[in-house]
Input
Amino acid sequence: MSVQRKPAEEYVVVRHRPGYRLRRTAILLVFTIIAALTGYAAGLAQGGFRFSSAEESSQVLESEVEKLREDFREARQQLINLERGRAIDEQALNRARKIIVDLETRIASLQSDLIFYKNIMAPSEASKGLQVDSVTLTPSRTQGAYDFKLVLTQVGNNKSYISGVVAVNVIGLRDREKEVIALRDLSEDIEDLGVKFRFRYFQDVEGTLALPEDFEPIEIQVVAQAEGRKSSQAERTFNWDDLTEN
Output
């Protein structure tokens, strides 16, 4: 017997969309991982790891690096799975890849900080005491100007404070003649020939310097002189091109 359909009866047509639910789930999964890891890395960056205790900084950094590595491996595996299944659109994949690259950069930065603290706490016999650790230069928005950062460290015996002054000179050529210009004469952030310092583990000296138009820089010379019971001197010269080549 045939079944008669009622004229008023409505029919709903459900279109089958293969992979839609999987695609949506995959996209949500990737962005959840991205959001979590980005927030985690941002939190580490904002923390700065500039604690009063270098031992504490080293331990925290080591723990955070390992945790970030674990999360990074999980995110990368999820990305590989999604790429294989082609269950996510190209835009989401590109964003996920960028986040992975950013995390790799952040891990490298944390590892560098970790090495910095470990070198302070467990130095070699030849590198104890007051040290000129590094100088960095970053081009500023103004032509011929650079943001600089000098890092001084006390390696090994850092149970008590060390104090003194540090002088910085930029060595170069003007009209083919050698000239030495004190950092004080290039930077409004530095008032004295010798910048005073006092610290247990490390201290940063930061500011902006502007070069004369007719001056060709060649080197930066740093001389740090500790005073009092820990009297000592540390000197180091940096090639200008090496500091600005990146």
Summary: The chain has four helices and eight strands. The helical segments are 20-47, 54-85, 90-121, 240-244. The radius of gyration is 28 Å.
